[in-house]
Amino acid sequence: MGKTLFDKVWDAHVVDTIPDGPQILYIDKHLIHEVTSPQAFNELEARGIPIARPDQIVATADHNTPTVNQHLPVQDPLSRNQLEQLTKNCDKHGITLYGLGHQYNGIVHVMAPELGITQPGMTMVCGDSHTSTHGAFGSIAFGIGTSQVAQVFASQSLLLKKPKSLRVSVNGTLAPGVLPKDVILYIISQIGTNAGTGYFCEYAGNVFEEMSMEGRMTVCNMSIEMGARGGMIAPDQTTFDYIEGKKFAPQGDAFAKAVSYWKTLPTDPDATFDKEYHFDAAAIAPMLTYGTNPGMGIKINEHIPETGDMTFEKALEYMDFKGGSQLLDTTINYVFIGSCTNSRIEDFRVAASYVKGKQKAPNVNAWLVPGSQQVVKQLKEEGLDEVFKNAGFTLREPGCSACLAMNDDKIPAGEYCVSTSNRNFEGRQGQGSRTILASPLVAAATAIEGKIVDITKTILT
Amino acid sequence: MERFTKLTTTAIPLPIENIDTDQIIPARFLKATDKKGFGDNVFRDWRYDSDGNLNMDFPLNAPQYKEAQILVAGDNFGCGSSREHAAWAIAGYGLKVVISSFFADIFKGNALNNGLLPIQVSPDFLKQLLTSVQENPATKITVDLENQVVEYAGVYTEQGRSTKSEFEIDPYKKVCLINGYDDIDFLVSKKDTIEAFEKERMVF
Ligand code: SF4
What phi and psi values does residue A411 have, to the nearest 5 degrees? Predict the structure, then answer.
């Protein structure tokens, strides 16, 4: 029987199988950041175990960093301590660190792909659940807890049970204004937040084949929001073109050799999956979430369901929305364009295309947070920083920012935020904050209008 | 890691579905560089109101559940972020077991790596159990890891329903919990096998 993309990559990394137990999986690349690594470093130190492969680890500072005045010392003493710990640990063990202000600094899942660290056929882990992002390249990439960070430090391996396989296919033509973010929000709204638990997901169909790498990353990023540990898309010419010439990509002959191997990875035609879903691209519209988990999504001009279970009622109460109502025309005072889901150059291009020549609504506080220093550089090269400035926006410095609100970028209690991030949990963007997840296009339109508008009417004429 | 074999104690009911790790431990408490103290902030924004006063309606604060070492929670517990701080917070609060009808993958692994036992039961069993501990907070629950059985003294259980359920656990993880081993010890003992594999693997 044929093998899936996932099988091929997984099987190539199995070191050993414990009878009746898990397998030892070799990890090619380990990404770390300041929040989930310090306890793992401490653990190894306490046990006197050295870091097995420091040259296969790359570190960045992103979760708990300020997005203004990064050239100044970090104000919050706890955050500063966490960053200092990371620097100390990396220095001590010879780990490459792209700290604050470094030209390669950025959100871990933005930085690694754009430097060519992420490549097809690899196994990659990071102490962050959105590590699934890297699956866009046809790699097995997933988030791990701090105990597992310590395990990878100690052995460059993990003990794991092979997950089941799931395939989500979307075929057909997307309507104008429907972005990769809408595709994944739509999928999650249809199958729910735990449909993928225990599975690794492959996305297939012409919709993903025609997507840019940025779009594929947005999709794979949110795999965890349907419970799947990771998501993957078969590597193809789009993937190879993106990687070629990147700083850490194989060069010259090595690149050609790599490509010929990467071409063997896509799922065999006769391979089967444990579970499959099929969707029609034409059924997808720009999406919004109305509740407190990413599965509570509707099309932009749809109505919130009338009634639901206790969780539904609790979510609506928290959001202060009524069952049966629409989100259109809701006044919005906060807009966040950023996070590892939507902070890449393409996301800012699409936002800029909407705001160009217009003015930000006076009631809106818009936080535009590029995913990395490289994205900042590209924005400037393309003159997009000027477009945003002329429309009344200021760009902040890279980091996770209001995606998890660990730093000062917190949405005030009771306020709605139309956000391009990935989680609308209670208080995720600050205590009492109310998150509405959306694409960068919908977010940009909201920032201009000061309320939610039906972009299918405004842009598509 | 602490050993786990058998436990009999009361339980805290938390009949909410999709409890995510942001609720278990909000991000603003993730700034520590050690594992201590997270228990103080477990379910912070549900346990305290915005002025910092204890919310007495929240089960964790109710005096009748003070001694409990088991949490009984709604479906899809622990979804969201990979932060192991969630497991540290629950264990740090003094809880040893979480019972639900479904657990998110990463949380489950994190819990097991910290000697916190996640027990998955049927939705029906969960419902009965939740009702029992809500109506009678003195309900004792026994968790027997060796035999993989959870049982409670359910005075309020509907007729014909069992107050006993078996549960699944990975055999390897079970051995780890019973003996207090963890994966690091095991992986380090496999160093030679891993290095031999490494020499053969494909790198570009
Ligand atoms: S942007 Fe948000 S989801 Fe992405 S890595 Fe940072 S905190 Fe995690």
Answer: -80, 130
